[in-house]
Amino acid sequence: MTQNVALPPKETGIAIGLTLLGFVLVAGMQHFYMGKIGRGILWFLTGGLFFVGTIVDLFTMSQQVKNVNARRAVGIS
Fold it and tell me: Contact at 8 Å (CB) between 42 and 28?
């Protein structure tokens, strides 16, 4: 039997900061930070879906972090 262990929460400020850095450095860092590796690779290879995805992330990042933290609280990475 496996036991789910709560993982530490991710910070919204860090995720938004990484999203902003996607405009000038490497897009997708916010997704790597939150453990969304596939999406991070997609953002990296397409420049944040040609910046459209990065702009959408700016407006939705706080909800994305809440969703990730809710999953991490019950031990789902």
Answer: yes
Which of 64, 63, 71 is CA-nearest to residue 43? Answer: 64
What pTM was computed for the model?
0.91
Task: Look at the chain and count its residues.
Answer: 77
Rounded to an integer, what distance in angstroms lies between the CA atom of residue 57 and that of residue 64?
8
pLDDT tens digit sequence for 13-39: 999 999 999 999 999 999 999 999 999
Q: Is the dihedral of CA 29, 43, 53, 37 positive or negative?
A: negative
3-class SS of residue 20: helix
Question: What is residue 74's three-state secondary structure?
Answer: coil
